[in-house]
Amino acid sequence: MVKICCIGAGYVGGPTMAVIAVKCPAIEVVVVDISKPRIDAWNSDTLPIYEPGLDEVVKACRGKNLFFSTDVEKHVAEADIIFVSVNTPTKTRGLGAGKAADLTYWESAARMIADVSKSDKIVVEKSTVPVKTAEAIEKILTHNSKGINYQILSNPEFLAEGTAIDDLFKPDRVLIGGRETPEGRKAVQALKEVYANWVPEENIITTNLWSAELSKLAANAFLAQRISSVNAMSALCEATGANVSEVSYAIGKDSRIGPKFLNASVGFGGSCFQKDILNLVIKINDYQKSRFVNRVVSSMFNTVSGKKVAVLGFAFKKDTGDTRETPAIDVCKGLLGDKAQVSIYDPQVTEDQIQRDLAMNKFDWDHPMHLQPTSPSSVKQVSVVWDAYEATKGAHAVCILTEWNEFKELDYQKIFNNMQKPAFVFDGRNVVNADKLREIGFIVYSIGKPL
Ligand code: NAD
Ligand code: UGA
Is the pTM of this model over 0.90? Predict the structure, then answer.
């Protein structure tokens, strides 16, 4: 039986390994992590992350050929293939702070592998890493190798949160990079055979190590650029009376451009785009978020001081509870800076998480142990409630920051009746029917659309 061990039981390690286990009953998969609460949650009925379809996949194979453990060294020592899926945040201090990837977690995982291994290993980079990381990892592994043969592969992950299980079941492609030596090719083939259990062969691309590492960064850069391009258009639309949905549809009909990933928004969020593409398109994304706050404040007669503003949605996108880099943090901080009373509702994000996010300095989220509230007083201006009606009761304005389906179905007449007048809606995701809301009496601002 092939044994796989994955270091890092996060948003990537957990779902990816669960899908390998469910699709490959002949492979034993153990996911290990240094975080005991995370592993305990993976072994409980309440998994540590929310992802549609994940519960079913985990239930189908946990305890059979899928295991979660904190006994990192034991399972690494026993494995034939080791995936490393630890976090690779942006450096917060030192050389390259705010730009370069912090590979501390990766390096400590690699040193541990070198320490405990007694047999040959295939070590797979699953985390998103800078190009040439494999070379550095090779050096660490072989430095004191006791004659053990290590093959490093790059197998970047392209799943998106909220659709992780679908993406893993039917990936557009699986990418495997390896050394162009006989041993390297053999390792690539071994990993290819794992994926071939459910992914058609033509969708498994094999390349050299550096192409695989770079392709992951390039894909995120292209995707983020696309959103920033459409968001830049949204500013032009607002200024000219053009409608960004009509523009997206019209340009998306060009088969060279294509229709996907052209939804204007309050700005992209998530743990990866920003860190993977720092400085490429971040300026436009930051501009989009501050533009949104400016619009709220300027439309409400240039002051939100003391006014209740309801925020619907805090996660960085729908169908996930993940708040890393969510535009809601910057928007809420902007509103709080102008002394608004912010009342927040998100169906999947806890009060605790929201309060922590709003108390954090930029770049702190990957280092929660260094938590230091930026401004404790501002947190008192925030209330977190478990219902959109409660959030909007008595509010002057509603800001929709995540495109949860339930926000389309709300009883907006009831919301309007319970709000201060004039009642404003700032739709940061273009999810509501603006015309209908205007009929009720709301003043509606959408992204990239005329008033
Ligand atoms: P995450 O923070 O959710 O999970 C990482 C886990 O690794 C944590 O649970 C942490 O405790 C654990 N860890 C850190 N060091 C460890 C060590 N030495 N030994 C054992 N466990 C250790 O991160 P994530 O979102 O799963 O991302 C992981 C990587 O995958 C990143 O490089 C990211 O860029 C990349 N990625 C993420 C996504 C996504 O949608 N989140 C998609 C594609 C690629
Ligand atoms: C993204 C990529 O889509 C994945 O392929 C990649 O594996 C992953 O980053 C990663 O490397 O971590 P993810 O961040 O989970 O996945 O989610 P996306 O669906 O890409 O959304 C990112 C952000 O862009 C969200 O805030 C979303 O609301 C926003 N977005 C997306 C838009 O504003 N407009 C769009 O048209 C699409």
Answer: no
